[in-house]
Automatic annotation (TrEMBL):
Its main location: mitochondrion. Belongs to the peptidase S26 family. IMP2 subfamily. Keywords: Hydrolase, Membrane, Mitochondrion, Mitochondrion inner membrane, Protease, Transmembrane, Transmembrane helix. One of its GO terms (molecular function) is serine-type endopeptidase activity. This is Mitochondrial inner membrane protease subunit. InterPro entries: IMP2 (IPR037730), LexA/Signal_pep-like_sf (IPR036286), Pept_S26A_signal_pept_1 (IPR000223), Pept_S26A_signal_pept_1_CS (IPR019758), Peptidase_S26 (IPR019533). Residues 15-104 form the Peptidase S26 domain. Gene3D superfamilies: Umud Fragment, subunit A. It is a single-pass membrane protein. Its EC number is 3.4.21.-. The active site is at S43, K91. It is found in: Mitochondrion inner membrane. The lineage of its organism: Eukaryota, Metazoa, Chordata, Craniata, Vertebrata. Catalyzes the removal of transit peptides required for the targeting of proteins from the mitochondrial matrix, across the inner membrane, into the inter-membrane space. Known to process the nuclear encoded protein DIABLO.
Amino acid sequence: MALSQGWVKRYFKAFCKGFFVAVPVAVTFLDRVACVARVEGASMQPSLNPGGSQSSDVVLLNHWKVRNFEVQRGDIVSLVSPKNPEQKIIKRVIALEGDIVKTMGHKNRYVKVPRGHIWVEGDHHGHSFDSNSFGPVSLGLLHGHATHILWPPERWQKLESVLPPERLPIQSEEDCLHGSP
């Protein structure tokens, strides 16, 4: 009897040691490196959730890449909603700070993205609550960079950072630095 109790005690002690090491490591990883998230809604169709309400894509969000606000035009990013801090939204980066963007339904036809901000839009313009509704978004609201679709299995793929040609900035900061009109 004492032999079996000793085994249980050793097992419990080893389990506790492993648990108290694994949990902080897992929490740190999910908070700082990457996590998975389910995408809901039609705002990013056809890139995400092409099947509509029948299915939801699950994506890998890379927190590491956005920690220094390293985003490019065309990246799909997760961010805290500027209108509801309890909600996260997923959109495509259309313009970076200094870019002049032609808006689609914003109160101003053209907007120069201020320093420390980005312009984000959903791929499905008629069904997206994005910068055309709330304006440029502070880089501080970035949560993660969507890099891969993980679910459903038949849609597993790397997400490319592609900016639709019709959404190129009218003038970018690089154009100004290199003397282009």
